[in-house]
Design brief:
This protein has about 180 residues and is an alpha+beta fold. Helix content is about 30%, strand content about 25%. The protein has helices at about 15-25, 30-35, 40-60, 120-135, 135-140; strands spanning about 5-10, 70, 75-80, 85-90, 95-100, 105-110, 150-155, 160-165, 175-180. A four-stranded mixed beta sheet has the order 4-5-1-9, with helices on both faces. The radius of gyration is 16 Å and the shape is globular. The relative contact order is 0.19.
Length: about 180
């Protein structure tokens, strides 16, 4: 499986009919997660990342209905019956992203209020690394865990957002797909 990154806006999910129609297409575990939220924005973000994961799996030729989603002791999701499929999901404000690979990967997106990157650059890098390696942020900050052996890439898709991916191998432009509308 090729490593692929998908990025999308959740703005089109404001349409309640479109939301309802797309909600029906995601697996029961994703529907339950969406239903858990009372806030409309959180529901849209949860549906958005679920749609990206479903799309990524389909494009990789993987039947999502046969996958059993579990979480490890740190809360990282994985497929119990297909542990060779690695993925990471992230969302912020109105943007969602997903990375899928046959190697450990991580991603993070953060909204940049007022177009200032400040400390968010370091934060998104650390967050994506922790997702890729299933490390915790405290160990990384203490230097117990290092970035050695991992590559980072910032994706400049939207001036108001910072997108960062972490992987063992560099990610090329042809491995990134921007979804214009769900």
């Amino acid at each position: 499986m090729n490593t692929m990154v998908y990025i999308a806006s959740t703005a089109t999910l404001d349409d309640e009919k479109k939301f309802a129609d797309l909600y029906k297409t995601v697996p029961k575990y994703r529907q339950a997660k969406i239903d858990h939220y009372s806030d409309w924005k959180e529901k849209k973000l949860s549906l958005g990342v679920g749609l990206l994961l479903s799309m990524a799996l389909k494009k990789a030729g993987i039947n999502e209905s046969k996958l059993e989603l579990c979480h490890d002791e740190n809360g990282k999701p994985y497929f119990k019956n297909r542990k060779e499929i690695h993925f990471s999901l992230s969302h912020s404000e109105e943007r969602v992203m997903c990375i899928i690979s046959d190697e450990p990967v991580g991603c993070d997106v953060e909204y940049l209020p007022g177009n200032t990157e400040t400390d968010l650059e370091s934060w998104t890098k650390m967050e994506s690394f922790c997702k890729a390696t299933d490390s915790n942020m405290l160990d990384l900050m203490k230097g117990i865990v290092t970035f050695k052996g991992y590559n980072f890439r910032e994706i400049k898709e939207d001036a108001d957002y910072l997108f960062v991916i972490c992987s063992k191998n560099p990610i090329e432009d042809n491995q990134i797909e921007i979804i214009r509308e769900f």
